[in-house]
Amino acid sequence: MRDALILKLGRRLCSKFGGDSQQFNYIRSKLRLVARLLICLRRVSGQPAWSMSDFINPTQFKYVVEAAKECAGFTDSKSQYKVPSNALKSGAVLRTLAEIKQGEALERSDSATAETCVQFLKLCDLNWSCEVSSVALRNISDRKRTSCNILPLTEDVLKLNDFIVNEVDKVKKDVDSSHDAFMTLTQLALAKVLLFNRKRQGEVSRITIADYNSKMRSDDTHEMAQALSEFERNLLKVLERIEIRGKRGRTVPELLTEQMNQWLVMLLANREHFVPVDNPFLFATATEQSHFRGSDVLRKYSVECGAKQPHTLTSTKLRKHIASTAQVVSLKENELDSLASFLGHDLRVHTNFYRLPSDVIEIARVSKLFLAAEKGNLASFSGKHLSDIEIGPHEEVQTSSDECNDNDDECEESMQITAVAGESDQMEIPADENDKMSIPNTISVSVVRDRKRAVKKKWTQEEKKKVATYFAKDIMDRQLPGKVAIQQFLEKSGLQRSWTNVKDHIRNEFLK
Length: 512
Fold this sequence. Notes:
Blueprint: H1 4-16, H2 24-45, H3 52-55, H4 61-71, E1 74-75, E2 80-81, H5 84-107, H6 111-146, H7 154-171, H8 179-197, H9 201-205, H10 209-213, H11 230-238, E3 240-245, E4 251-256, H12 258-269, H13 294-304, H14 315-328, H15 333-343, H16 347-353, H17 358-374, E5 396-397, E6 415-417, E7 427-430, E8 436-439, E9 445-446, H18 461-470, H19 472-476, H20 483-493, H21 499-510
Antiparallel strand pairs: 1-2, 3-4, 5-6, 6-9, 7-8
């Protein structure tokens, strides 16, 4: 606490963040890391009275490396760090300390001390990666690869949402007279906004009253809104939008439903009785310059709601959950870009870190390419999306004249896939969202290309209306129904169409 160089580092960090109280924990953690380094340095070097400045010297570099490894819990026998991130952070903070010492030496025209710092920094550039950070990065990569990535269950998300709504109904009648009821409503509202918007918990927790008061509602009569569907225009009427400060200073939007707005208006109306006037935060606690943490309220209510896997209901995993769902419904690149912007990151981050786990996508979709390539009929799937490729052992995919929709000039190909099943060694893998297929130990594939002029069968208005009504929910969710669902519809409606014809019609008419 009395080390001069460590205190200068603290002042530099405070100056960098402009006195932002939200960064105090970050500054505190940095100073504690440097303090642990100094304690280790004094022990391994046998110099209990030395300061941090004394160790910023090329002659002491070997002790610096040893101390950094010890602080990160390095084990020689396993070549592993217990906390590999600490090894990386130590390298960065030591460089900062050397730069501070060098800057002060230059101000005093002390060229000898400045040159010592230059040599220390050069040693860091030359040897730190080999000595410390390479193993730390490998440890982090190995742990990430072998870790189990579990996303929230949809039923748990629904259970948490219902729990929040029911709890609000219990406490809102006492919010004007009870301190406990007011604070409970504040936490429930914070959890609801987090759950709906899938934002980082810190961004939502720090929403200020000024942010909320600047909320806006989009003009559904604007000429740009006329290009939207009726459902999308109705959403503009009921959702309000506020802009908040996101990661790295980005401005990110936050959506509020009418229900959320009612809760927040109730909080603001009774705020003066329970929250200090100087507290600027919307989800404020009873002390000045303080707010509830989104991670704490999610952790609390995920347990109380009785979720099967409460540990998965965190803001990070909820963000991965919505991004994974977006991958399943195959959004276009511009739609993914809009989703990524709303979540507060760019498309590259969304693709690399928030998409569906690689084992799922590889088994469910990519493997279909290898199955097709193994049988030599990969070219027959030209022009198809990966999610549209189906390979079934007993299924015939044959396009005839009555299966062409009214947008096709002719049927391009008819393809028949047959299979000869052995007596054993069968495995089941999902072929569609409603179907399963068995892959036998022997598969013979024959491709018959039948290029002929087709007689188009026009879709009548009555047929279109039946399809649109029955599959309204799928169309609203921009999901293509599976074979089983379409066959059930055909049985109930009596339409004289093939299931593939109906599927093509829904894709071309509603999901383009």
